[in-house]
Amino acid sequence: MESLQSRFIKRLMRRNLRTLDALNIRVWDENTSVPVWRDYCEAGAAKAPMPKGLEVVPVKIPGLPAHLSAEWLQPAAPREEAVIFYTHGGGYISGSCSDHRALVAKLALSTGLKLLLFEYRLAPEYPYPAALEDTLTSYRWMLTQIQPSTKILIAGESAGGGLCLAALLALKDLAAQGEGLRLPAAGVAISPLTDLAMTGKPNGIKGSVEPENMNAWCCKYYVGSGDPTHPYISPLYGSLQGLPPLFITVGTDEGLLDDGLRFAEKAKAAGVEVRLIVGEGQTHCYPLMPDFIPEAKYAMREIRAFVQKHTAS
Fold first, then answer.
1. Degrees to nearest 5, angle at CA 277 with 5 and 26
2. In the chain, what are the domains?
């Protein structure tokens, strides 16, 4: 049964939709302003304080366009046996270090691991394959910054959850081609966007807290002139054999419920170890919400246990 705290937060989120109406970003169409949405996300993130016990260390990744930032989020006494490589969400049209820093800090502090947060080029200005190219560039750089024995956890939320799964498929293919890249030891996908062809069962949610039609336009902008069923765009359509263990979590009250469920089912059928958690009554990316919500606290505790299991020395 959904907790009272969760219900309360959803009521607050629905009230906040009035702000989206005032900015004309509540219902998306061809006239919706992506820059306005980005500014809205940045303004909201600026109100979220950084938790104590975490240091932000900016870095420059060679090969990334000059306007893109990257940084390590580093706990005071990080575990040295592993690191987290994080692909941020934002529908492929928004997202930055500054608007994800406080959100992603929860994962770094919970696991006790250093976390690399980096930016990638965004659609519609830069459709696929820009985000994946920048992700692979950042991953290759990170390999030069850690010891050969250091284990890697790849993680992401929303579109970033789909991007981390797409990156796993690309890394698996590159390894098979003899490039010598080592795969992450495990992956965590929170509310992942896995099917940009949008063939899944719609999840009609009464009183949804998500902008209407936004997902369709994000998919359109990122796919561009590409094939929405290409595995590097929509990892649901990839060959999943050989992927490392995966942790996938979705909420029953979010638009990407079917994306997560179908990917988990296909991965299990391919012999991949999958830990799936479905949050009853939970919204998009709920594990990253504050711990006073019992469902978020439980999901993060399970993620921490999964990470420790697969990154222990």
1. 60
2. 4-311 (3.40.50.1820)
